[in-house]
Amino acid sequence: MPEQVSKIAIVGAGAVGATIAYAAMIRGVAKHLALYDVNRAKVDAEVLDLNHGLQFVPMATLEGSDDIGVCAGADVVVITAGAKQKPGQTRMELAGANVALCRSLVPQLMKVAPEALLLVVTNPVDVLTYVVQQLSGLPARRVLGSGTVLDSSRFRFLLARHLNVAVQNVHAFIAGEHGDSEIPLWSLASVGGLPLMQWSVPGRAQLLEQDRTRIFDDVRNAAYHVIRGKGATNYAIGLATAQILEAMLHNEQRVLPVSSRLEGYLDIRDVCMSVPSIVNRGGVEAALELSLSPPEREGLKRSADTIRQAIRTLGF
C-alpha cells in the first residue's frame, strides 16, 4: 500500500504561522505543507526560504498562495491569522477583530477543505475555538485550540529549573483559559512519578508556597515578557503546535491540554477551554475527568465563566 500523504494547511504566514511550518517541516509531521496569506509577497518569501532548507529535513512539498484554494484537501487546517497582540494588551482584548476575521474566513475554509480538522492558534484561542466550531458547523471533536499546551510547557520548564531536574521528567498541567484566568493543577503534578506536593529530595530545592506563587505568576505573564522584548511569541508556540499536529496526524492518542468544547465536564458547559484530553486522528476524543482539589474545581469554573462572558459579548 502506498504511504498516505498528509497535508497541513496553515492560515497566516506571520511569525507564528511561519514558525509552525518550520517546526512541522523539521519534525517531518506531514509530507505536504501549504501556507495561505493575503500578503502574496510575504507568503512567497516564507515558502521560498523554507524550500531552500529541504535538503536538511525529511522530504516534503511546500507551497504557498494568497488564494485560499491552496488549503484544498488538507487533513488539518491551522488558523494563525489575526490581529497581533500588542505590549500590555490582554488576549481577550483581541477578540473583536479576530472574530470578525473568522466570520469571513471559516466559511471559505469549509468550501475548500470540508473534511479537515481545524486547529485554532489565534488568540484569544478559547473564544475563537468556540466561534470557529459554531461557524464551521463541524462536530466539537473536530475543532480544537492550542489551548494551554504552551502554558503547560512553560510551567514544566520553570518547575524543572527550580527543582534541578530534566523538564521531560516533570508532568504538570495548566488548565482553563489560555490567559489570565488559567489555573495550575498542583494536585496532579509529579516529578518522576513522585507527587510534586511530596517533593523532598536531599540536596535539592524545596517547593515552598512562595515558590509556587512565583512560578505560576511567571507562567501567566510569560507571553507579556516575550512580546515586550521582541514583539511576538513564535518559537515555543511553533513547537507546541507541531506536537499537537503530530498527535493528530500520527494518531498518537496523546494526552494534551488542548482547548475544546466542554459539555458537562465537572458541571462546565457550553464553553471551549483547556483540560487534559486524548488527541488523535479524529481530533479530541475525550476530556479526562480528573480528581481535582476543590479550589482547582472552583478555579476552572471561574475561568469558564470568564471565557463564556467574552463569547456572549461577541454575539455567540
Automatic annotation (TrEMBL):
This protein's UniProt keywords: Allosteric enzyme, Cytoplasm, NAD, Oxidoreductase, Phosphoprotein
Domain (Lactate/malate dehydrogenase C-terminal): residue spans on this chain: 148-312
Activity regulation, per record: Allosterically activated by fructose 1,6-bisphosphate (FBP).
Pathway: Fermentation; pyruvate fermentation to lactate; (S)-lactate from pyruvate: step 1/1
GO CC term (a single one): cytoplasm
Active site, UniProt feature: H178 (proton acceptor)
Keyword flag Phosphoprotein: yes
GO molecular function: L-lactate dehydrogenase (NAD+) activity
Positions of beta-D-fructose 1,6-bisphosphate binding: R156, H171
Function: Catalyzes the conversion of lactate to pyruvate.
Name used for this protein in its record: L-lactate dehydrogenase
